[in-house]
Amino acid sequence: MFAAALLSIGIAGATPVASGDKLIPGFEDFRIQRIQRAKGEDDWPFVAEKGRLLCAPSWQKRFVYFIPDKEGGGIGYPLALDENMMMVALVNMGRGSALRPFDNLEQLVKRLSPYLAMGKRLCDQPAGSDLPDTSL
Questions:
Q1: Whole-prediction pTM value?
Q2: Beta strands at 31-36 and 130-131: parallel, antiparallel or unpaired
Q3: For 64-86, what is each residue's pLDDT tens digit?
């Protein structure tokens, strides 16, 4: 989680987070939802079969991340999601292996959009929320 907090600072610059005007959000500021690939789901964008969506609201923006569950336990490094694919590419540089192969940018956007929208809805939940799969 701390890595996600640092990553949000990398995206946002030095903008304070909404709750308490803290530069680095605390664990209590995040919202989390467990997600997993459904059987036969062709548009699942991630290599990992399950993980967590994380929302880190900032002063003017809602930052959404996918944190993969590692096989055998543990969590992987957060993958930032955004409408701006250039931002996604820059922030996630070196972590391209977290996404399933895609044929073109349009296919990638189609795959990521529902999870980005779900993550933004997650930001509407109370700080510290930890929701089960299919809640949003």
A1: 0.77
A2: parallel
A3: 999 999 888 888 889 999 888 88
Pairing label, strands 50-57, 62-68:
antiparallel
Q: Alpha-carbon distance 77 to 98, whole Å?
A: 9
Residue 15 region, left (φ>0) first, then alpha (ψ -120 to 50), else beta? beta
Where in the chain does DSSP place strands (E)? Answer: 31-36, 50-57, 62-68, 79-81, 130-131
Q: How far is CA 7 from the centre of its chain?
A: 11
Q: What percent of the chain has pLDDT over 70?
A: 76
Asked if residue 47 lies in contact with residue 100, where contact means CB atoms within 8 angstroms, the answer is yes
The side-by-side arrangement of strands in the sheet containing 130-131 is: 79-81, 62-68, 50-57, 31-36, 130-131
